[in-house]
Amino acid sequence: MGYKMNNEIFDTHSHYNDEAFDFDREEVLKSLPSQNIFAVVDNGGNIKSSQKAVELSKKYPYIYAAVGFHPEYLSNEKVDLNFLVSHLENLINNEKVVAIGEIGLDYHFNADNRDIQKEVFEEQIKVAIEHNLPVIVHDRDAHGDTLEILKKYKPQGVVHCFSGSLEMAREILKIGMSLGIGGVVTFKNAKSIVEVVKNVPISSIVLETDAPYLSPTPLRGKRCISPYIEYTAQKVAEIKNISLKDVLETTKNNAIQLFRIK
After folding, report:
1. Superfamily for the 9-259 domain
2. Residues 108-125 pLDDT 10s
């Protein structure tokens, strides 16, 4: 690496509330500071996982929570938006909640409920804006609608696991949002995201894992954890021809500013 890291890693997107960590969650989370982790934002996707993220944030000083309703949990039936907002409002009252997320659009598995997804996405953005919180956006096979909604509301936040084009990335940056870069950038077929990373400023990038998913090369297939960000950061450093130290320090500071971590 060329230098000794000292808690330089900020993982802006994880799911330690996931059942994949049920058998050793405490062991994994307790070990993070000794593996150069400065902070982690644990993301919810429904009421249960959002509450779990909040509980973890209260237990570990370096864990922060994002709360929200992920599109994969939405059916084709109309959503009770008052019910959704009331739960978000209750969760936001916790001081360790730093974002509304993971929210957004996913047309990969279910494109039949697009109108419902968009309505719920917009409603959660409104809550975030009202409470001056950033959003953590999920966008899978829904680039056009995602960009349209983000342009409409111009929230603070990050597009998680960014998979759009360079043109879309530039539009996201014009809004003032950041791009979440994770293990996918290390994959052999990741030409599009490599082009994006090469051409956007490091000041607009934050690093993430999506733990327990999307482990970077050479750890693909293994359960992902926050220390694996080092492989992602090394790839970003290689693409941008800057030092690993600069990548880690800059993306850490970007995340601190984005989530207002003291």
Report:
1. Metal-dependent hydrolases (3.20.20.140)
2. 988 889 999 999 999 999
